[in-house]
Amino acid sequence: MSSEKIVRLGVIGLGAMGSEMLDVAARHPEFDVVMAADPSTPALDRARAAHPAVSYVAEPERLLEEEGLDAVYIASPPATHAAFAVRAMKAGKAVFAEKPLAVDLAEGEEMVAVAAKTGAVNALNFVLSDRSAALAVARAVRNGEAGTVLGVEMRFGFPEWPRSFQRDAHWVAGRAQGGFLREVASHYVFLTDRLLGPLSPVHTRAAYGPASEDTATGLFLAGDVPVRLSGQVAAGPESYEWTLYGSDRSYRITDWADLWVGDVSGWTRVDPEGPRGSEETRLGEFARAVRGEEHTLADFAAGLRVQRVVERFHSAP
């Protein structure tokens, strides 16, 4: 594919994320949104009103059979990811999917195997793959500014689950496909995996409310570096915090994008270089992947490593 060619894109799933990505792709100079699919008539009607030039179908299978597509973006519930991605890759299409990769490990393994066999471009939409704060920490670790990495800690808090913008996606609330471990913690597990390598479980525990997990605690090792994760749905502010502790400097990312550097004098807020990172920039990264160029996105193999960490909580006795 030449650098001048526009990526002809199909979108599966028009919930919160699918609708947002459709909006972004429709105005992105490197994409032409050709078709979108969702079984919900109201979802199709909303998308059609906003983007009347796109073709709409209720059956994702019709989109996957469309020969005029270079790539497919998948934002349907996680239990459907494998079937759609495998069929798309076998049809010669590149695939950009929302996380988690899958909820069944065998399906995740199949996605990785088919990607390897077909050579299809494959990527997952982890927010921290191109977030400027995460890239700054990666540079600091790579350049030795952190010194020896001594540990990583992830902490999350939610006054309610699901969050307000996800209430229409009923699967997000359930244990089978949703919960904050899959929806939120997976982004930070990905970042840790990218910086330090695969995580091996030492101890995991999750406690469940009427639907998904209410609390989760875990200890992993990335090589010999301890990685701790804790989260809960409880009274208090919504919070997202990832910290890498180094012998010379430590680094903290809060609220997805705010970067702090810690030393003997305390924590200092800093402004990382470059664009903040967004759905638009990650779509640009996907276009580069489709063209065979270097990019920052996670592939399905990285997504499978993250899936194994997350599903360890749900399979622990």
Automatic annotation (TrEMBL):
InterPro entries hit by this protein: Gfo/Idh/MocA-like_OxRdtase_N, Gfo/Idh/MocA_oxidrdct_glycsds, GFO_IDH_MocA-like_dom, NAD(P)-bd_dom_sf
SUPFAM superfamilies in the cross-refs: Glyceraldehyde-3-phosphate dehydrogenase-like, C-terminal domain (SSF55347), NAD(P)-binding Rossmann-fold domains (SSF51735)
Keyword match Oxidoreductase: yes
Protein's recorded name: Oxidoreductase
Keyword set, alphabetical order: Oxidoreductase
Domain Gfo/Idh/MocA-like oxidoreductase N-terminal: 8-122
Top-level taxon: Bacteria
Pfam families (UniProt xref): GFO_IDH_MocA (PF01408), GFO_IDH_MocA_C3 (PF22725)
Limits of the GFO/IDH/MocA-like oxidoreductase domain: 136-251
